[in-house]
Amino acid sequence: RDEAVTKVLAGTKLFVLAFVGLFFVVYIYTVNVESVTLLKHSPPVFNHLRHLNYELFFVVVIAFSGILTGSRPLLLSSLLFMFVFLTIWSGGRGTLVAVLAAVGSLILFSRHLPVWKLTVILVMLTLISTGLVFWSGKHYILENTASYTVSKNPKQFSQGRTDIWRNSIMTVKDEGPVAVLTGLGPDAFVRYQILPGFVHPHNALVQVFMECGLLGLLVFLYILLKFALMAIRTVRTSKKPEHHLAVAVFVGGLVFSLVDGI
After folding, report:
1. Were both Cys, which of 24, 42, 112, 256 would link to 98 (CB 3.0–4.6 Å)?
2. What CA–CA distances, in Å, run from 71 to 3, 62, 76, 79, 247?
3. pTM for the complete prediction?
4. 3-state secondary structure of 40
5. Is the peptide bond before 154 cis (omega within 30 degrees of 0)?
């Protein structure tokens, strides 16, 4: 509710992504890629680069909202273009869906702001970024993402997420009624080796159920409901852009957590 705190958090997110981006550039282009198993070759790409997409989602919404308020439009527009480009290049489907949800909430509930005009610009930046990625020739990540996005096979489309969710739920069920109620405890996904090499089921609700059981899931849903009602009251009563930014981040972050995890 404090505007100053909101601005500090937003600025911190922008700084964090700039720092991490610099780290990736320096690390990837100075390390001996042949000796690092977590790097792909031609071009060298960190295997888990798309885990940066959570940060990308937040800063896209922050830059988008900052431009709406007229705050440093040139700087934020440049950053927005960079963030959109990184999202397209890294094939971040979760980021795109979350950004759509966040922008959609602004369109629905923030009609006093020029959201539509900036949304058109965002779409144009996305198209330009896609064109630049293909023009560069470094588009194998994007092509790989596109190949399973258009697949009619649910398992391939979700990159095996549906099987992961099903196996996680069945693991809890197989442990008996007590486990269903109270869960299997912290890091259950790793401890029960649902999928070796992965640390969570890529769905916040499944993860909460697996670790905290049905009781924990109900508490978690109650908290989300409280936040949702607070968000609805905020967008109905407040005209301050910072408040609408917070709601947009909440909506997009919630959507993102359903396809990635926490």
Report:
1. 256
2. 14, 11, 8, 13, 19
3. 0.77
4. strand
5. no
